Fold this sequence. Notes:
Elements: E1 5-6, E2 9-10, H1 44-58, E3 72-83, E4 86-93, H2 98-111, E5 114-120, E6 125-129, E7 131-132, E8 144-150, H3 156-162, E9 169-177, H4 181-185, E10 190-196, H5 200-211, H6 213-216, E11 224-231, H7 240-245, H8 256-268, E12 272-278, E13 285-286, H9 287-299, H10 318-322, H11 328-331, E14 347-352, H12 355-362, E15 366-368, E16 371-373, H13 379-387, E17 395-399
Flavin-adenine dinucleotide (FAD) binds at residues 16-21, 39, 115, 127-130, 147-150, 152-158, 198, 201.
Amino acid sequence: MRGPLQGRALSTSTSTQRSNNSATPEPVPKSKTKRRRGPFVYSIGAVTGLTTAWYAFASGSKDESLNDTRFTAFDVVSNEPVSPTAFVLTIRSRDSALAKNSAKLKAAWEHGLWSVEFKQPQLQIARHYTPLPPLEGEDGTEGQLRFLVRKMQGGEMSNYLSRMHVGDQVWLRGPHHGFDIPKRLGDAREIVFVAGGTGIAPALQMVHKMLNASVNGAEDFKPSIRILWANRRSVDCVARDEFRSKRGENHGTQSVFLRQILDMKRRHGDQFIIDYFVDDEKKFIGIKDIEAALRSASATKTTWTLQPPNKSCRWHSDKLLAASMDEDDGHTPDAACACPQGRAGRNIVCVSGPDGFIEAFAGPKRWTGGRELQGLVQGALGTIKQQSRGAVDDWLVLKL
Length: 400
Ligand SMILES: Cc1cc2nc3c(=O)[nH]c(=O)nc-3n(C[C@H](O)[C@H](O)[C@H](O)COP(=O)(O)OP(=O)(O)OC[C@H]3O[C@@H](n4cnc5c(N)ncnc54)[C@H](O)[C@@H]3O)c2cc1C
């Protein structure tokens, strides 16, 4: 079921996972594949023929590093349960590609939001997954990647990944850079995430990018990041008990994912807040919760007033955002801000999670000419924008 309005509350229950998946036979170049919603089946015969042809062609290639046209091999380092339905899969680059991969991963972490595709070789399908940030003490260039994966009932890729053991081989394509959050934030200071399930992964990427001085520069430039995190079951609310009881020092028995959230909280304090919502406990994210998050964020005032966004600004116009897709930001990294001179930028609300979740909170994305565009802001955030009479005009809504 999609996540409809339940009174003024929204359920996180959805039938499909996050959008933009591609079911892609190996030889199809990235530029020719559509990022698809939901499952898609290819003729196995056609796929086998094409795959054979591709391998014959590709066997001459020596570059085995991560790239966005061809799948490359990584080795599974660990597969650790986080809850009955979620696990953290850790993989590592092959030594032969380590130097090149390290440089590519460094660039991806510097960009901020990014994902890769995994391939299921028997079925020739591919799905996007979002790398969790490096742990404390790592700089992200060790060639290791970690993913929080939810095992979907009947889900082809997530169940395939859940069966991976140490030493197994997986195939990756990417990295795919998403929205350029620092550019879009500009001189604004607040980021709110409305995240469903594994949709917390991009939020943690933002914590890594925006709150780590070593990644982002000056201390006084750090924004606040508040995450409204919805899960179906209380067992998936990682770190909630620890935050409530202020426990969290016994790292020995904690999952790597729990440890990561606790470390982030310890390092970033009130600049990193998670509010938990659980279907099981009938605690859904409602319009009032989002309004409260936006209000409390706006209350931590900056000493400057933001200029109103120019309608033709590449980074800050709502209209131009509605007609673009997340990967576009990486194509024009040097485009100038066209807002009036002075302090310019927009606070940011990101909605990340399954399709139905995004639709309920921010409205559907829109397919046009093979591109999945952001579309207008609708759903709960559309209602808030309509009712607020300008009070949330400095917030830009991104659908991840
Ligand atoms: C940018 C991006 C990043 C993502 N990051 C992550 C991440 O970090 N972690 C994560 O876990 N997920 C992530 N996802 C979602 C992920 O890509 C997959 O969609 C998810 O793992 C489910 O894939 P699957 O192959 O297991 O399920 P699928 O086989 O695609 O099935 C999905 C659901 O649909 C149902 N279904 C299957 N076939 C049908 C059918 N014919 N008709 C109706 N329903 C059907 C299944 O039972 C299942 O519940 C991300 C998605 C995107 C777009």
